[in-house]
Design brief:
Butyryl-CoA Dehydrogenase, subunit A, domain 3; 8-stranded mixed beta sheet; globular; 12 helices; 392 residues; single chain; Butyryl-Coa Dehydrogenase, subunit A, domain 1; Butyryl-CoA Dehydrogenase, subunit A, domain 2; alpha+beta
Length: 392
């Protein structure tokens, strides 16, 4: 029976209904460095975890524009939740590159949550019928609530091997190291995972070339143009929404606190009357508006190339990398302006702005998001030089 796919507006409205719960649990999330069970249950009940599940398994296969706007709503509630959901979505989409036999295993789990990293910090030893994995992997966002993990490992074989293998591993096969003690995105629970002689059958393994070139081994997904978009293009597009939403939350919470607040040690009886406040609010709002507009244009470009089933050139891939870097820089600047204008009372833990500031800072430090790295890559390309990275 065909799945009824909610409209974009329906999904955004659904996400918005979660915001009060997410805000009410913000302190607990930071203190416990994970998401609480009632938040996980609410996310499952919302249906939002289906947005990147393949249609043949009852998923929505939502476009990037929809996911950006949905994730922006979630980030208005809590950035740790939004970050986890961005990971679940992008990694769930990546699962579509595996053979149908493996997909049947993964999507047999209702409300499946997939996490993972592309850092090949482990080793894979070839054995009969598959591989043995050994190693440790850090920064596994959302793993505490996940069912599966995409794990990259370098195969032990001929010298000169440069591409890892990628495998689907049940979380129950891995050890969890509770080492996520951070000042930002505290609730993402991005702990380290360890594999000790974990066997992965061949049906759950694809090569690095297949992974990075988006060669889907699924007979059902391979004909879909959306699965021929470069992996990192889709992943970066999906993750822009959490930054936009964090910026919007920062501005809204600042304006909410503004009425009646004096500008201490000045002659202004209200901060709202001070010209400096007008400049700060105006600049922050413009930065956030520009970031959202860029995210939408990026998503619309992605949708148009999918519609036409166009190939992605090296220039296209570089351009996609710089989008999230520039969006991160704009949102970070906007939040810093608002945080600096929020006064001494903003350092209390129940005031959202410092949490948002820490979370945006942490997000912008992600290796694939860091503004400086991505802007340099873009400028290098414009100067006629080859990229200094294979992560495109």
């Amino acid at each position: 029976m065909p799945t009824t796919v909610p409209t974009r507006d329906d999904l955004i409205e659904t996400a918005g209904k979660l915001v009060p719960l997410l805000r009410s649990r913000a302190l607990w999330i930071d203190e416990n460095r994970r998401l609480p069970s009632d938040v996980i249950e609410a996310i499952e009940a919302s249906g939002l975890l289906k947005m990147q599940v393949p249609a043949q398994y009852g998923g929505y296969e939502s476009d990037a524009r929809t996911f950006i706007d949905v994730l922006a709503e979630i980030a208005k509630g809590n950035s740790s939740v939004a970050f986890c959901m961005s990971i679940y979505a992008s990694l769930t989409w990546m699962v579509g590159l595996w053979p149908d036999e493996a997909l049947d295993e993964v999507f047999a789990q209702p409300n499946v949550r997939v996490t993972g990293t592309t850092a090949a910090s482990g080793k894979a030893t070839r054995v009969e019928g598959g591989y043995l994995l050994n190693g440790s992997w850090g920064f596994n966002s959302g793993v505490l609530h996940s069912h599966w993990k995409i794990t990259a490992a370098m195969p032990e074989g001929p010298a000169g091997e440069t591409l890892p293998i990628f495998s689907l591993v049940p979380i129950s096969d891995l050890e969890i190291v509770d080492d996520w003690n951070t000042i930002g995105l505290q609730g993402s629970g991005s702990v380290t995972t360890v594999a000790k002689d974990v066997f992965v059958p061949d049906r759950r393994v694809i090569t690095g070339a297949e992974f990075y070139q988006n060669v889907s081994k699924s007979q059902i997904n391979a004909p879909k143009a959306s699965y021929r978009v470069p992996m990192l293009v889709t992943a970066t597009a999906m993750q822009t929404g959490q930054l936009v939403g964090a910026g919007k939350y920062a501005l809204a919470s600042f304006l909410e606190r503004l009425p009646g607040r004096p500008l201490t040690y000045t002659n202004y009886p209200s901060q709202r009357e001070a010209p400096i406040t007008h400049l700060q609010v105006g600049e922050a709002a413009l930065l956030i508006e520009d970031a959202e507009g860029r995210a939408h244009r990026f998503a619309d470009l992605l949708a148009e190339k999918i519609r036409r089933d166009e190939p992605w050139s090296q220039e296209d891939r570089v351009f996609s990398r710089v989008q999230i870097g520039w969006i991160a820089q704009q949102i970070k600047q906007a939040v810093e302006i608002l945080a600096a204008a929020s006064g001494g009372s903003s350092i209390f833990r129940d005031v959202p702005i410092t949490r948002i500031q820490r979370d945006v800072h942490a997000t912008s430090l992600h290796s694939l998001i860091t503004p400086g790295t991505n802007i340099e890559l873009y400028g290098r390309s414009l100067s006629g030089l080859e990229p200094n990275t294979v992560y495109l």
